[in-house]
Amino acid sequence: MSMTLAVLAAATAATPAPADIAAAREIIRQCEGKENFSDPAPPSRIFGNVWYVGTCTVSVLLITGPQGHILVDAAVEEAVPQILANIRKLGFNPKDIGLIVSSHEHFDHVGGLAALEKATGARFVATAEAAKVIRSGRVSPADPQVQEIHGSRPARVDFTLKTGDVFSVGPLRITAFRTPGHTEGSTSWHWQSCEGKGSSRDCRTITYVDSLTALPLGTYRFADHPERVAMFRKTFAQVEALQCGILLTPHPSASAMFERMSGAEPLASPDACKALVAGARDRLEKALKP
Q: Exposure pattern of 183-206 as b/e (b: 16+ CB <10 Å)?
């Protein structure tokens, strides 16, 4: 990456307020006890022009702009009608989505991609590693979860990205950085969103960090795959160094997103990325034990 990730702008001293506490509390109420990837959740504004339109357990974000929008992640295929309904409920037209990006190439994050591409006409970008899986619909044979998870409907990839690539929809800008480990194609994203006008304008870095979870399924053992362990550790160091501003994650539970959106916890913390990595590193070390 030509930029160091430390270039991500530090948040201002004051903690930002959640944009819609009531809506976030309604998500928590409706999602209590729900565990399926497709369980519907109502939409909520997170901060500035960033909206939650996903399910109870899988994040889908809408970043809105005056010349079109960006959708981050696609959830499972069964969730697509609800995602589109959430977007419309917020007053936006899915046809105005100009770009879709994803975190990684597992079915719970790209299973709905083909349907969303058809519904929106948006272009889609991914790493070369993720693109191979997404275009084929088949899980990578090197994936730690390949023995027990299924693929997804093949989808179109319009451009293969590398770390540092910036994608635009009108004035919106979103920057990719590769964070492999959970999958070979894992990708994280950052952008800036603002609230208010004039002297009260509050701009924040939003960092969407892909899953850092070392999750072996079937007979897979990380101790037998030192190259995957090295991949994780390099990603941990990268993410740990971030000043991530408002941290968002592909599974809301990974970073207490709903609790932070509801005001139960601070929306932003200077140590958010460090805490995320600490938990992930501990899980990897436990997975490496005999």
A: bbbbbbbbbbbebeeeeeeeebbb
